[in-house]
Fold:
Amino acid sequence: MQPQTIPQQDWTARWALYSPEKVAVREAETGRTLTYGQLDRLSDALCTHLQQQYGVQTGDRIALLAENNLEYIALFAAMQRMGFVLVPLNYRLASAELDYLLKDSAPKLVICEDKFEATLKAGEVLAKVPHYLPWATLQAFCEAQKDETQPPFPLQPVGEDHPAFILYTSGTTGFPKGAIYSHKMLFWNSINTAMSLIVNTESRTVNVMPPFHTGGWNVLTTPFLHHGAYTVLMRKFDPEQALKLLQEERATLFMGVPTILKMMADAPGFEVARFPDLYYLIVGGEPMPIPLIEKWDEKGVPVRQGYGMTEVGPNLFSLHQDDAIRKKGSIGRPNFYVQTRVVDAEGQDVAPGTAGELWLKGPMVTPGYWQNEAATQKSITDGWFHTGDMVRADEGHYFFVVDRIKNMYISGGENVYPAEVERVLQAHPAVAEAAVIGVPDEKWGESGRAFVVLHASGYTEDEETLRAHCKAHLAKFKVPRDIVFLDELPKNDTGKINRAALKG
Structure:
């Protein structure tokens, strides 16, 4: 493709012009690689093939059911050139759940790995999808075409508000909502990321997040592709392998949720691991426990707490590594092109230091939810996205997440935010993990029930000991009525605590 004809959103073509031999992405398990030049050739080949063989046009959806692999990246490059819409599906879902996503997104084509085919075909909707492509067939096509000279695919009119992804998130109604992730969001998320972190052509990372989650795509992978950087993909997370790859690949950045980072820190290989090239870890999803921050810091790896969500960004706030302890519990300050408001239930700005719902505005906000105008109207007011998170900001404009609004419970007329109670419990030396939910109470309406996992180092603290610890640090109405000890807390696909399972 000639330089003057390269569309703004076609990052691959630009990097193929500048650095065609540079490796863009590698599969950890197989060692397969794609250079930016190969990605460019594959983009043309895939666009032509998908159009001629399956009738795919600009705006059509392609649903994908697979683990991290090179072909996912090749499809991303083709998407930027042709303008079809990628719909990554969660391969951990049941058939009925996949049916719902297929029916909602109405894809022209479904591409599926062999290992997930039986689950997908057990449903009823796949038979109604116009075309089906086994992932192995796609892989064979890509391997054959990546080094072949390709005729340029005709330029397609792809506007900045055109969907790039539909990313499904859990909904309050029990049905997932398809958040539209536009080409404009891709660009501005990358800019926000590069301005808050150190991202350039020399950056290197290992991606362990799943491809059906915005963290797998948009925390580092798409900003890295935008900046001509290098990404190693892990199909499945393994803590020992992740530690090994960070060292062997001389990773400069790494992102994980606290559960992932704890598993790595607890792995036998952590003791001897050295990370001289790693600037810092990026953590999101949930607050990072201070003892875990300190454990990584002792290895010379600072931690940057962040905040994001599928519908906005996702790279929205960042806490500088030098403030990790001084501003413990904070998500940091907003990234450069992120506007913020903290509002009450009527949508009015609250006083500084007062908790309220976080609203966000900027070029990285979703245009809305796929075929769900009601949810879009409920979530966006004059361009401001309602996050559903209660926050407060201190005098230095550092933000602190109080809790999700939906997690709050009311005990004796007082609002209780489980995250606050959980932080107190996790500060006890015996507690490894904690989760708190509201449960019915005849006297108070609701009261707290805490679920606690103790460290495996011989702690035998009982319920009253931990309740006494809570009483010393919390108002009486916030102290859990009862404490349940578990061997482990239930987690969702990205390592977050599954509160629905605890309530179940």
